[in-house]
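Hello Y.,

Per our agreement to keep a running log of every chain we model this quarter, I'm adding this entry. I've kept the format consistent with earlier entries: sequence first, then predicted structure.
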Amino acid sequence: MAQRSMMKPLTLLLLTLFVGMILGAAITGRVVQSRLAKYNNFLSEAGFTQIMMDVIEPESEGQRAKLLPILEETGQHIQETKANARTDILLHYRELEAELLPILSEEQKNRLQSWREKLRVRLDEHPKPENR
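Predicted structure for the entry above:
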């Protein structure tokens, strides 16, 4: 009888802990996703310009008109740099792979190829920056 009376509170406690873990994971995931979105937005031309305008808070339309072309040009350079970095990283990875493949066993090559496919799918989920 004592075991039976303890089951209800124990079940309630475990259910509460489980719900708490689920909520904690969901909230953490959302916070991380939000921060990544802000970071990616900062690396786009329009996002960079808007964020900098929000930080600077131009005092007049004249000042805003002077700031806008400077910020847009810098935003475009940042976006181009990001696109070029992605291309450079892929180039370095291909060079690395060319050096590694003769050394690796078939099993290692298969693991590397599997990892590369997973990475490609993840990268394809994120849109590439627009080229202007």
